[in-house]
Design goal:
By secondary structure, this protein is an alpha+beta fold. The chain is built from eleven helices and 21 strands.
Length: 426
């Protein structure tokens, strides 16, 4: 049998693809990994110091995700610009029901963290520079053909296309590239009929390291603490759910009027809104793939499932799935099996399926439940929120979901690298 060009090709070098590459370099160093990324990579893009931008896009990291990054030896670098979430406040606008979660009640330093996407990408690239991971960039995967020993992948760079052979292809380029459909995966899509407006905002009161989940008759919104990791600042990351008409209306307003409209929807828990940064937006859809594997190919991250962002579960679910896949690759390599064997990929699917089904149901049910305005349902929501706040067992379950530790163990059952730091040493 002819020698393959590489063992694994990862289509997409964003947060999911780069994290998978780093995890494999740590946990399965014998595998040859090639990442195909559409954006050019340069050492010039990795500055020695990082200056956060006010308009930086960010991601909510659950406590379970911190444990994974610790396992990969990345947290000591990443935590320099990760704002802790010490409290979560969930409420239904205009009604009395509310639930409050506090990290101290669970003997944790934080319930989660908020980190800029660009900062996470820079941290991953810095770590990957010291690995044997190979990069093809700028380039993109445009096709795949199964082989008896694996797959033949078509990689396009500029006007030129060449073929690379590997045991397996992992699609980690999100849900919008079209590669997933090109390879024959079938998706199920539920359109919420809403849009997410993303922006950073400033308020007269500090956030106190509190994340707010606010459900309103016009749709849910979230405000996540952003900025300094050590000082409770006045900046928060906003996720605002809007209908098409409402989005068009908001985007037409001046920044001052945007703040005024936001004030009307959120209230005064953070004082007055004084600034809103650049507004990005995208349509909200629940996208799932019932069969995310086929011989020689696996989907991960948003290519496998895309959730409503207000519950902050998407990337954390993806991260747990990546570690499940890494563990199956490690076992296959130890047993002398091909990582692209359907049996190997099916085990990954089976182990991750319960987690993603539960997380999808949890996230989707919040949106559907709080999207109903009928008085009996509104009263039931209030009772439920109060019950969560008063019943220790229910509150603990809700907290574990929010912290990303409610399902399978987040960290690979594998010896930790020597530079892993312990959360207890903080």
């Amino acid at each position: 049998m002819a020698r393959l060009d590489t063992d694994l090709i990862i289509a997409g070098g964003g947060l999911a693809g780069a994290t998978l590459a780093l995890a494999l370099s740590r946990m399965v160093p014998s595998l040859r990994v090639t990442v195909v990324e559409a954006f050019p990579l340069s050492l010039d893009a990795l500055p020695e110091s990082y200056q956060p931008s006010y308009d930086a896009r960010s991601t909510a990291l659950a406590w379970g995700s911190r444990l994974i990054f610790e396992e990969l030896g990345l947290w000591s670098r990443l935590s320099a610009h990760a704002t802790p979430i010490e409290h979560i406040h969930v409420s239904d606008r205009g009604r009395f029901g509310a639930t409050r979660l506090h990290a101290a009640e669970h003997d944790q330093a934080a319930l989660g963290y908020v980190a800029d996407n660009r900062w996470m990408g820079l941290c991953l690239m810095r770590e990957l520079l010291d690995t044997r991971v190979r990069w093809e960039a700028p380039a993109e995967v445009v096709g795949m053909m199964p082989l008896p020993e694996g797959v033949r992948v078509s990689v396009k760079s500029g006007e030129h296309t060449r073929e690379l052979t590997a045991q397996c292809l992992v699609v980690a380029d999100g849900g919008r590239s079209g590669l997933r459909e090109e390879l024959g995966f079938r998706t199920r899509v539920h359109d919420y009929g809403q849009n997410a407006l993303i922006a950073n905002v400033s308020t007269t009161e500090s956030h106190g390291f509190t994340a707010f989940e606010r459900f309103t008759d016009a749709g849910p919104m979230a405000l996540l603490p952003h900025g300094s990791p050590s000082r409770a600042a006045h900046q928060s990351a906003l996720v605002w759910t809007l209908t098409d008409d409402a989005l068009e209306d908001i985007l037409s307003l001046s920044d001052e009027d945007k703040c005024r409209r936001l004030q009307e929807r959120f209230g005064w828990r953070l004082g007055r809104f004084t600034r809103i940064g650049t507004c990005n937006h995208y349509p909200l859809k629940l996208t799932t793939v019932d069969e995310p594997v086929m011989p020689g190919v696996a989907l991960v991250g948003n290519a496998a499932h895309a959730l409503h962002p207000v519950a902050g579960q998407g990337f954390n679910l993806a991260l747990r799935g990546l570690m499940t896949l890494v563990e199956q690759f490690r076992l296959a390599e130890a047993q002398g099996a091909s990582i692209g064997d359907l049996a190997v990929l099916k085990r990954y699917q089976a182990l991750h399926q319960q987690d993603w089904q539960q997380t999808v149901r949890f996230s989707d049910s919040l949106i559907r439940l709080f999207g109903e305005s009928l008085p009996p349902l509104a009263a039931a929501r209030d009772a439920g929120l109060v019950g969560l706040d008063l019943l220790p067992g229910a509150k603990r379950w809700f907290a574990r979901k929010a912290m990303g530790i409610g399902g399978r163990r987040a960290v690979i059952d594998h010896p930790a690298p020597a530079n892993r730091e312990s959360a207890k040493n903080e």
